[in-house]
Specification:
Protein name: Glutaminase
Catalytic activity: L-glutamine + H2O = L-glutamate + NH4(+)
Strand order of the largest sheet: 2-1-8-7-6
EC number: 3.5.1.2
Structural class: alpha+beta
CATH superfamily: DD-peptidase/beta-lactamase superfamily
Keywords: Acetylation, Hydrolase
Subunit structure: Homotetramer.
Bound molecules: glutamine
């Protein structure tokens, strides 16, 4: 760990302080619209297990699409490359909830991180683990070492009550034969994984296997080094929807955002980072989170480029 990492994180916090509260919280899920926008947190988990944080790093928030990283890791750990028969791995250049490409791609989503792809991954995971309640929740509890992490039932209910778009995507997928399980069962699993509430500190810890070439928190090999390389590549090209280019330009790391305002980023072989600020930019990515990672990577030289 850089000797002065704590100082660097505090400096980053100071540098982005004027942005606290800017952007707009997601409003298409009423429960998320009620979140206080005046938060900022950052946490870094080094591959040697040391962790440093600043700001509201222990405050829980809705992980939303960051959960798509964990569900993809679980299906790859489950049956390897099978998922790539059902989902492409190309940047979409489209909004996270876009339906447009699905029709002319005959039901094959562009990548596993836009909602269409994540629904196929959720379906695949449901087939692999039909008896589990919430495999993604079990996974983040184990990897973060925090057994108290839970699903925010109000967020899940709020999203399910406003799921017309995801429901349309799921039905369209099913019409092309690319959704095997019942639409409601898949939507339920998907919404529950998105509604997991975690802090920056927990998320940085839970995502650290991606910085450790696939090694889980207890030393098992969850993914091979090669599978981890490929996961990180898909995060770099598709983790930020139509702002993937902007994130690569400003930050230069694999990462995944969520509409709860969190971003998980990975510096392979060095650390995993989680930042959180609920205000989003027009692409649905945390405005202050993007700025903080820009500052952090500029100060540390942590970029894959
Ligand atoms: N980008 C996101 O975080 C979106 C996740 C959200 N649960 C949705 O499906 O709309």
């Amino acid at each position: 760990m850089p000797v002065d990492l704590q100082e660097i994180l505090d400096d980053v916090h100071e540098a982005v302080r004027p942005l606290i509260g800017s952007g707009s919280v997601a409003d298409y899920i009423p429960r998320l619209a009620a979140v206080n926008p005046d938060h900022f947190g950052i946490s870094v988990m080094m591959t040697d297990g040391t962790q440093c944080s600043s700001g509201d790093a222990d405050v829980e928030f809705s992980i939303q699409s960051i959960s798509k990283v964990f569900s993809l890791a679980l299906v790859i750990a489950g049956d390897g490359d099978e998922i790539w028969q059902r989902v492409d791995r190309e940047p979409s250049g489209a909004a996270f909830n876009s339906l447009a490409q699905l029709e002319y791609k005959r039901g094959i989503p562009r990548n596993p991180f836009m909602n269409a792809g994540a629904l196929v991954v959720a379906d695949h995971l449901l087939s692999l683990t039909p008896d589990a309640d919430d495999p993604v929740l079990d996974f983040v509890r184990t990897e973060s070492g925090n057994p108290d992490i839970s699903i925010d039932a109000l967020t899940a209910a709020s999203e399910l009550a406003h799921a017309d778009r995801n429901s349309s995507i799921a039905h369209l997928l099913r019409s092309f034969g690319n959704l095997i399980n019942d639409v409601d069962a898949v939507l339920d699993r998907y919404v529950r994984q998105c509604s997991i509430a975690m802090s920056c500190a927990d998320l940085a810890a839970a995502g650290a296997f991606l910085a450790r070439r696939g090694e889980s928190a207890d030393g098992r090999l969850l993914l091979s080094g090669n599978q981890t390389k490929r996961m990180n590549a898909v995060m770099l090209t598709s983790g930020f929807y139509d702002a993937a280019g902007e994130f690569a330009y400003r930050v230069g790391l694999p990462g995944k955002s969520g509409v709860g305002g969190g971003i998980l980023a990975v510096v392979p072989d060095v650390c995993s980072i989680c930042v959180w600020g609920p205000g989003l930019d027009s692409s649905g990515n945390s405005l202050i989170g993007m700025a903080a990672l820009d500052e952090l990577t500029s100060r540390t030289g942590w970029s894959i480029f």
